[in-house]
UniProtKB/TrEMBL annotation:
SUPFAM superfamilies linked to this entry: E set domains
Organism: Danaus chrysippus
Record's subcellular location: Endosome
Record-given protein name: Vacuolar protein sorting-associated protein 26C
Gene3D superfamilies cross-referenced by the UniProt entry: 2.60.40.640
GO CC terms: endosome
Recorded family membership: Belongs to the VPS26 family.
Protein task: Component of the commander complex that is essential for endosomal recycling of transmembrane cargos; the commander complex is composed of the CCC subcomplex and the retriever subcomplex. Component of the retriever complex, which is a heterotrimeric complex related to retromer cargo-selective complex (CSC) and essential for retromer-independent retrieval and recycling of numerous cargos such as integrin alpha-5/beta-1 (ITGA5:ITGB1). The recruitment of the retriever complex to the endosomal membrane involves CCC and WASH complexes.
This protein's UniProt keywords: Endosome
UniProt subunit comment: Component of the commander complex that is essential for endosomal recycling of transmembrane cargos; the commander complex is composed of the CCC subcomplex and the retriever subcomplex. Component of the heterotrimeric retriever complex consisting of VPS26C, VPS29 and VPS35L; within the complex interacts with VPS35L. Interacts with SNX17 (via C-terminus); the interaction is direct and associates SNX17 with the retriever complex. Interacts with SNX31; the interaction is direct.
Length: 303
């Protein structure tokens, strides 16, 4: 005898807002009559935090100093003990999406997949059976999104990048002397809506050597609390090459970046962790000398 459990949500996008009802069906597909001791469905939402071994130490990283933060944990009984007939049986369900009140996260956070911080929401269905038979389990991930707010006020930022203004540049090989250059960068707004592209422009006014590449990098900065303080780590989310080869001087090159759905979220700050974002404009010269200009940005969910 073979039997399978599947969770199908009514909403194809699987995106829900706090206060809505998550509805769907649990599908039981069996080739023979199936006896069971009860069928239950659990909605779980949690924040999983992980320490970077380089900043926290290898022993701290494998300890239980950071426990998952529970955002929601609700269980309902779908069916009492009994028998499911052969074939396909659909059992409907509805569960309210309401946060579990706590001091760290009083409301539900948006779904987010990071390196050291992950916010995950899951439906888990289990069919209890007699001790002679293996319990059947299945799960389905869904996504939580904040409701749209008023469109943020644009906060453009403009700057010139020269050897005198560069805060960080490192040669990866070749010449160790910084070339003479003058670049202009502009970001249309450092307050960015998640459903709108990040735009701006970059221009090379002068440069004494050829340029190999100009790149726009989205960086996440994740901060996690632990026994000895906080671990703060920056990792790259996406890298878009906007110029390949030596660009024409005094010519504006547009910047355009669409934010990834699961790997970005509204800028978040709690007592236990933070999720922040930055933009880097990176210029790589022909001898692999790298110059970057950093722009902290605020991500919001707006109309």
């Amino acid at each position: 005898m073979s039997a399978n459990l599947t969770i199908n949500l009514k909403r194809a996008s699987k995106v829900y807002y706090e206060g809505e009802t998550v509805a769907g069906v649990v599908v039981v597909d069996t080739n023979a009559d199936l006896r069971h001791e009860g069928l239950s469905l659990t909605m779980e939402g949690c924040v999983n935090l992980q320490l970077n071994t380089k900043s926290a130490g290898i022993f701290d990283a494998f300890s239980n100093t950071i426990k998952p933060i529970t955002l929601i944990n609700t269980t309902i009984e779908l069916a009492a003990a009994g028998k499911i007939p052969v074939g396909v049986t659909e059992i409907p369900f509805e569960m309210p999406l309401v946060s579990r009140q706590n001091s760290i996260a009083p409301a539900l956070l948006e779904t987010y997949h990071g390196v050291f911080v992950n916010v995950i929401y899951t439906l888990k269905c289990g069919m209890r059976r007699s001790f002679l038979n293996k319990q059947l389990n299945t799960s389905c991930q869904f996504f939580v999104q904040h409701r749209h707010q008023e469109r943020p006020v644009s906060k453009p930022v403009r700057c010139e990048i020269t050897p005198a203004t560069v805060r960080g540049g490192a040669p990866a090989g070749g010449s160790r002397h910084m070339p003479h250059f003058q670049l202009y960068a502009e970001i249309d707004s450092t307050v960015c809506a998640l459903d709108r592209p990040i735009t701006g422009k970059v221009r090379v006014d002068e440069c004494s050597v050829a340029i190999k590449s100009v790149e726009l990098q989205l960086v996440r900065v994740e901060t996690c609390g632990h026994a000895e303080g906080f671990s703060r780590d920056a990792t790259e989310v996406q890298n878009i090459q906007v110029v390949c080869g030596d660009p024409r001087r005094a010519c504006d090159v547009p910047l355009y970046a669409v934010l990834p759905r699961l790997f970005s979220c509204p800028t978040t700050a709690t007592h236990a962790f933070k999720i922040e974002f930055e933009l880097n404009i990176a210029v790589i010269f022909e001898d692999d000398f790298l110059v970057t200009e950093n722009f902290p940005i605020l991500l919001v969910r707006s109309k």
